[in-house]
Amino acid sequence: MIRKVRNHLNPEEGLVFEISSPGKKAYQLPDLDVPAVDPAQALGPANVRREIEHFPEISEVETIRHFTRLSAQNYAIDFGCYPLGSCTMKYNPRVNELVARTEGLAWAHPYQPEALAQGCLEVIDVLERYLCEVTGMDAVSLQPAAGAHGEWTGIMLVRALHESRGNPRKKILVPDSAHGTNPATAAMCGYDVESIKSNDRGLIDLEAVARAANEDVAAMMITNPNTLGIFEENIDKAAAILHEKGAMVYMDGANMNALVGISRPGDFGVDVMHLNLHKTFSTPHGGGGPGAGPVAVRSHLEPFLPIPRVKRNGAALAFDYDRPQSIGKVRAFYGNFGVLVRALAYTLAHGGPGLRNATMDAILNANYVRTRLQDYYDMPYDSPSMHECVFSDDRQSAKGVKTGDIAKRLIDYGFHPYTVSFPLIVHGALMIEPTETEPKQELDLLADALIDIAREIDDDPNLVKTAPHGTRVSRVDEVTAARKPILRWRP
Amino acid sequence: MLDAIGVPNIESLFEHLPERVLLGRPLDIPPGKSEYDIVDYFRALGEKNATWPSFLGAGVYRHYRPVMCDVVVSRGEFLTSYTPYQAEMSQGTLTAIFEFQTMICQLTGMDVANASMYDGSTAVPEAALMAMRVTQRDSILISRAVHPEYREVLATSARSRDMKTGEFGYGTESGVSDLEDLASKISDQTAAVIIQTPNFFGCVENVKAAAEIAHRHGALLVVVFAEAVSLGLLEPPRDADIVCGELQSFAISPSFGGPFAGVLAAKEKYLRQMPGRLVGETKDSRGNRAFCLTLSTREQHIRREKATSNICTNQALIALMATVFMTVYGKEGLRELAGQNLAKAHYLGAALPRRFSSPYFNEVVVRNTDPAAANRALAGRKIIGGLELGRFYPELSDCLLLCATEMSKKADIDQVVEVLR
Known about the structure:
The complex is a heterodimer of chains A (491) and B (421). By secondary structure, chain A is of the alpha/beta class.
């Protein structure tokens, strides 16, 4: 029985271009207090455009209604549990939004003199130190703009280290359970990718690592806990095998929400890693960004970090550009500073003990959901779960219902689906990450819904295969979208 | 919950972790603070920064942010949603991205635009790599009048790839790219020519002439913009093959350099080589219009090491903020806004010794015998001056780059003129 939601009326809304008409406006500019300038004269007639063809023209009230009506067509954490595995969709505290808009921080220009930007430099300095403590690493660069950008930066650091030793090496090892960004990153950094098969427990196979490790290997990219939500208990041994051959260990920190305060990558052999501040540190996902992907390193990689670094200069903080071995800049200025402010606010609000508690609650919630569902869905790798659990649709696909169908049916129950069909090593994966911020009532509603759906598949598989039924938009034709792409409105 | 799981306490849920990997002590981070303490802490940090009138531009601009922009992006439905993989419950975000893609095409004169890149600087190497895939060539020529930090990010990217980068100069009198220098350096191995307009000196480039040179050699022309407001008045770079740039000017606060939003737009024929997310229009099973992420076979989660880019999370909420900004100002407003910027900058530029002769938008390079001393004098009047160009261009160490926008008050401009003249 669907208990979490029932339908309500929801207005139709056209595209902004369709509600536009000439002369409507939603802006007011102040009176110009200097003489007006003729654009054609100042810029040259050929450089001046006649108009922006078909650009919006709507009123202020239509603007707020337009975007409010669109917003009503979204699901969000603020509506309920968003159990996307690997994505760590936890509550985003609103105080973080407020402090990121503090005037002195939000209006600080990246080129204003350091003496007039000490508040910003302090945010960077303090957050770097806290992230070092959380990861057990020696230095952090906050410059990368997102997780994949942090991966890219990290592998570029590995490349720079190997180059400084005379040979950039040829390939990156990636487990077959890895995120898609890992092999894509390795390729973008000019490396070949060698996939390493996981063992029958879903973990790194030390013998496979030993066979693959040689002087051509620049690094192995490891996610820990891995994408099955299982802690890689032999990661330090894998690291030792790789270090023996001069290869580095890169850790994809996407699942750091399972480790904060309990275990530190710097203590189990990791040389370089990234963090997703928009996952572990709760900065909002915003429909796909902005995030931040700080990269943390042990001391042997520190000379290569992007410029500038923040250093203390007496009582003041300053930028240091004089770092001859640096890989250079990976992004203009100093990274997604506003996201860093939010992550620092999150860290301060939790404090050390609170961060550890959050981790423990994340593990508790995932194991609770696992317990409630394990009689209804198959779990091909049943090692203990950390912050997420991965089922397969084996039992349901025997009835012709696949993980993607179950996901769509879950929408009718008022939940955003789990991560579908990932990791690739699980056939028809359902990857569920509830996060620590879900109350038990919400977890029970989620588990009840998935149990109901399992029963529906026994009784009426077609109901599930044609879901969702209660949404304003039914199943979307993605095939036609890709075959005949319409990527913009035209009159 | 523990009873249901069948364990006595939470710790037992991770007692399978080997002892040797456990931290075994509390994190050395002070205990949690109250909401009031946190607000107070950041207010104090903000007060350590100057919040004076500023004439800094150089890729980050002070524009008024209509209230509507924060109101919309603060809605939890947008703020706390994920990448819209599940189209049936993400039509709000998907529709807004579709509108964004359309507006970027209208602004830039391109056929297709993606859902956003991290920022202007990282969009440049993505455009370069895209041009290399299209042309199957490996050399990039970039103008020295492109933002220095964008060029640095391109150089970092080139370290790991079979990408050769070279620069061409700018006219020491004109302040725009030296197209003769370009013509002498371009070859049949050049994948892309990259220019920025208005360029780093605020000067308007001759896109058509640069396009002719690039196309004559089978290279693509990539046009970069850092000041999006200029597109309210300036002829869009229709002769470009790829346009990329920075949307910070559209309601995004300077925020010490980020988060901003990059854009990447191109001619339709290069669509399959574009990086990043794309939203397309389609129908649902009942025949209603619907939107979804599309052409994802270009992307990392499908193609892994063969993807066009590793980009995953981008800048969706910032792109939404820019979409609201473009909607609020609209067709007439963006033009009027650009006109005010032009007027303010020309009021400033007309009163000072200009270094370059080319037409300029809202930034101007002025000569000054001692730019550092001039900035100190302005700081004495609680005004943040311009960028000392010697930092990036040793040959311009006697110059300041000044920016005036609709937020620059005449009284402050007059003070700057008084100090610098």
